[in-house]
Amino acid sequence: MSEPIQVTGMVLSVMPVAEYDKRVVLLTRERGKLTMFARGARRPNSTLMAATNPFVFGTFTVYEGRTAYSLVQADIREYFMELASFQPGVYYGFYFLEFADYYGREGTDEAQMLNLLYVSIKALLSEKFDNRLVRRIFEIKALVINGEYASTEQDMSPSARYVCEYIQGAAIAKLYTFQLKKEVLEELEHLMDSYLPRVLDRHFKSLEILEMMED
C-alpha cells in the first residue's frame, strides 16, 4: 500500500455509492481537485460520516491507489453546519462549490481558490454582508484566479469601476470589507450577468434553484 497523504481542503460534492460508501470530491490546497472513495462512510458508526458532507473544511488523510484515492481519516476545522439553516444563503454556498468544481483540476495549485471558498462561505454566514454582493465578489475573484476575467467596466459608473478594480487586485482576506449602495450593486450584477455566459459553458443547478427562490 502507498504511503498516506495529508491534504487540506473542502468537500465540494458527495455521492452515495455501493451500500455504505461515498464518492467525495475534494478541493485541496496541495493536489488540486481530487475524487476519492470513503469506504463505509454511510454507516451510522463511521468516523467519516460527518466529515464527508459538502462545505466541510479540514485536513484529510488519503491513500493514492492505481485508479482512485481512498479517504481514511479527517481532522475537521469547520463543518459549516449552520449554513443549512440560512435560506437562500445555503444555495449561494452550493453555487460557490459548483463554481469551484467547474474550474478545479487534479494536480494544480488551488490554494487561492480554496481560500476564496472559505472566506466567501464565512461572508455568507455574516450578517454584515448582502448575499448578492458576496456572490458577485466571489464570481469576479474566481474568474481572476482562473485567468478568465477581462476588464469590461468601461461603461460603468466610476464607483462600480473602482469596486471591480478593487476586487481584482485585493488580497483574498481583504475582499469582504465593504458594502455597496443599491445602484452600484445593481451595476455589478448587470456586468456579471452579461459576462459569465461568455466564459462559462455550464448551467449550475444550485444557481437555478437560487434564482427561483429569489424570484
Describe this structure in words.
The chain is built from 6 helices and 5 strands, in the order βββββαααααα. By secondary structure, the protein is α+β, with helices and mostly antiparallel strands. It has 2 domains: 5-79, OB fold (Dihydrolipoamide Acetyltransferase, E2P) (Beta Barrel), CATH 2.40.50; 84-214, de novo design (two linked rop proteins) (Up-down Bundle). Strands 1-2-3-5-4 form a 5-stranded mixed beta barrel. α1 (89-103) packs antiparallel against α2 (111-125) and α1 (89-103) packs antiparallel against α6. The radius of gyration is 18 Å and the shape is elongated. The mean pLDDT is 93.
Brief descriptors of the model:
215 residues, alpha+beta, OB fold (Dihydrolipoamide Acetyltransferase, E2P), de novo design (two linked rop proteins), five-stranded mixed β-barrel, 6 helices, 5 strands, 40% helix
Low-confidence stretches: none
The run of helices and strands is EEEEEHHHHHH
CATH fold node name of the largest domain: de novo design (two linked rop proteins)
Query: What fraction of the residues are assigned to beta strands by DSSP?
Result: 15-25%
Helical fraction equals 25-40%
The name of the CATH superfamily of the largest domain reads Recombination protein O, C-terminal domain
Instruction: Give the strand order of the largest sheet, numbering strands 1, 2, ... along the chain.
Output: 1-2-3-5-4
Domains (count): 2
Rg for CA atoms:
18 Å
Shape: elongated
Report, as a whole number of angstroms, the end-to-end distance.
53 Å
